[in-house]
Amino acid sequence: MKVNAWNEWDPLTHVVVGRADGTMVQAPEPAVVRDWPEYGFPRGSYGPLPPEMVAAANEQLDNLARILEGRGIRVDRPETLDFARAVATPEWSQASMFGAMPVRDVLLTVGNELLEATMSFRSRWFEFLAYRPLIESYFREDPGMRWEAAPKPRLTRASYREGFWEAYEALSEAEQVALVRRGELVLSEAEPLFDAADVARCGKDLFVQLSLATNRAGGRWLRQHFPGHRVHLVTFGNPHPMHIDATWVPLRPGLVLHCAERPAEDELVQYLKVNDWEIVRAATPQRAGPPPLSACSRWLSMNVLVLDPGTVCVEASETAQIEQLGKLGFEVVPVPFWDVAAFGGGLHCATLDVHREGVLEDYFPMRYGRF
């Protein structure tokens, strides 16, 4: 047992796969809006996802676990909590939690460190508890492991921009993207906030997306916490940014898969180019939109799980993405996973790499602009 992962592509030997049990459409809170009247959840309502959806998602999650175990990868699974229960701190109360499927949102592995993210949704403040028994077992088994937790945020009203959603929804897409570029979304800068899934790891370089879940203070905290790394705060032309792993996906040294509908900053593009990295535009998704009760986008097509520099798991129905990655030299493992999307994401979202073979390397020796 050893915790070790420096990037997104070294050979995977140990992983956590999430569970769908008990997942909720969250109760209203400042950080998030859910409005799905056509599926029985109009704005302001909340409750558990339908049991038939839970069963279908768990079947696909269990299948993913079997596929990985069949390739010799150790797979652990989290415990589930009563996510329907209300939770509170001395400063706020929240009528429900969320779930324990997208483990990537909550935990970040950098080298021998396992870091618990802050989480900016009140409904997800206690979500780390679903993974604590696993983390505790890793700590007991691996004497070299660093177990860290970012400062638990207060998440008072001061952490959010008052009236943000009403004002934001009235803007044009171009005006929304301008706010994204400036990092002026629902989160204020009152305290550090970040989701682990907004971090893409490339050895000494960590790319941190400013989003609806990650603010500049969170990026600054990560920069100070990892002084041996170059921590870059980045944005994309996405009016609703939520996690980097369906927009900017490092596949192996020298290759990034990019959602061209969400343009990267020119300085980021040039930083990769001066270091001889190729940026490939992701294939068009097969579907026009997300599944019912999903806060994700159709670009989960590029939310892949890299098993090693030559092997990648892709949602089985995304034939264009499968074909593209095959032409790039990958062995592609098709994995049915669309039924999991409503529970918090795709293949990358649903997994946490505990151990990848490999060491810390510098893949970007040349500087460019602010990078």
TrEMBL record:
SUPFAM superfamilies: Pentein. Keywords: Kinase, Serine/threonine-protein kinase, Transferase. InterPro entries: AmidinoTrfase (IPR033195). One of its GO terms (molecular function) is protein serine/threonine kinase activity. Belongs to the amidinotransferase family. This is Serine/threonine protein kinase. It comes from Streptomyces gamaensis.
